């Protein structure tokens, strides 16, 4: 069995780490000098990306709508050309045989 020292060393706690990190970030921030037109450039890039996103979304919506319409028309066009059982014309416009009145 080994013995471990669980007592923290001086100056190595979370407070020290936080202080050192704060000093490093302050030194880094102090050395940064923004370009004179940085905001305008960043805003222009953002607006350009926003316009492009909206354009792509509009084109995508138009393509999906067009494809859905074309597929629907193609499916409707695939129906058989013969009139089928319901509109076969057998019976000459009279009621169904079981509903017809008997002739005297």
Uncertain segments are none
How many beta-strand runs? 0
Distance between the termini: 116 Å
Please state roughly what percent of the residues sit in beta strands, choosing from under 5%, 5-15%, 15-25%, 25-35%, 35-45% or over 45%: under 5%
Radius of gyration: 40 Å
Q: State the shape.
A: elongated
What would you note in describing this structure?
It is a single chain. The protein contains two helices and no strands. By secondary structure, it is mainly alpha-helical. 55% of the residues lie in helices and 0% in strands. The mean pLDDT is 81.
Structural descriptors:
55% helix, elongated
Give a short overview.
The protein is an all-alpha fold. It contains two helices and no strands. The longest helix has 40 residues, at 38-77.
């Amino acid at each position: 069995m080994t013995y471990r020292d669980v007592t923290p060393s001086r100056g190595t706690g979370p407070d020290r780490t936080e202080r050192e990190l704060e000093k490093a970030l302050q030194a880094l921030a102090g050395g940064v000098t923004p370009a004179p037109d940085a905001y305008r450039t960043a805003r222009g890039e953002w607006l350009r990306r926003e316009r492009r996103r909206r354009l792509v979304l509009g084109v995508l919506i138009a393509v999906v709508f067009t494809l859905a319409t074309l597929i629907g028309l193609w499916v409707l066009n695939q129906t058989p050309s013969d009139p089928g059982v319901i509109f076969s014309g057998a019976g000459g416009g009279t009621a169904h045989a079981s509903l017809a009145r008997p002739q005297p």
